[in-house]
Amino acid sequence: MINVLLVDDQPLLRMGFRLVLETQPDIAVVGEAGDGAEALAQVTSLGPDVVLMDVRMPGMDGIEATERITRDHAGSRVLILTTFDLDEYAFAALHAGAAGFLLKNVQPAELIAGIRTVAAGDGVVAPRLTRVLIETFTRRNPARPGSADDPRLDLLTDREREVLIEMAKGLSNAEIATELGLSEATVKTHVSRILPKLGLRDRVQAVVLAYQTGLLRPP
């Protein structure tokens, strides 16, 4: 069972998310919070697997709450939900350690899939936002001539490079497994090795590095 905490300052939105999620036999909404401070208290007492977090809230916002949760409660992963496209708030939340980012107008099936993905230890970014994410990061940190020779890439095996490329396309571990003809467990092992080898915290940073070094070209 995946235990979920809903964090949003609008009760009606929380109600809507609850109604969607409670239709699933493997998901349980264990609590709700209207701001970041309340979310922290709920995470401490309930220990949810996934925190569905709004970004802009009164008092402690979702960014600070996400940073504290990822720092002090490693067992709870944060999935950001917002009405806004990728902006400074969203980027800050990802930097704070959020495992994923979806818009609030997401289809119910995509929301449910995102929660399951994050609960399984993977990351998720709304497919239509992946290109915006990459373009924004690479615009801020443009690739340098010859950066495809980044020495960090030499630390990867050929198979790990293949996995990194598929990660950069926004594929989940399960999708990478299908694409490369591997088991999902093997892909997960490769990902767990790739990140420390490259000195990266999460899949989002890995995706950005793949584009910055020219390992994969923007679509």
Automatic annotation (TrEMBL):
> Which InterPro entries does this chain map to?
CheY-like_superfamily (IPR011006), NreC/VraR/RcsB-like_REC (IPR058245), Sig_transdc_resp-reg_C-effctor (IPR016032), Sig_transdc_resp-reg_receiver (IPR001789), Tscrpt_reg_LuxR_C (IPR000792), WalR-like (IPR039420)
Question: Which intervals hold domain Response regulatory?
Answer: 3-119
Indicate the secretion signal residues.
Answer: none
Write the lineage as a comma-separated list: Bacteria, Bacillati, Actinomycetota, Actinomycetes, Streptosporangiales
Enumerate the spans annotated as HTH luxR-type domain: 149-214
The domain of life is Bacteria
Q: Which residues does this entry mark as bearing 4-aspartylphosphate?
A: 54
Q: Which organism is it from?
A: Actinoallomurus oryzae
Q: Does the keyword DNA-binding apply?
A: yes
Q: What is this protein called?
A: Response regulator
The UniProt keywords, alphabetically, are: DNA-binding, Phosphoprotein, Transcription, Transcription regulation
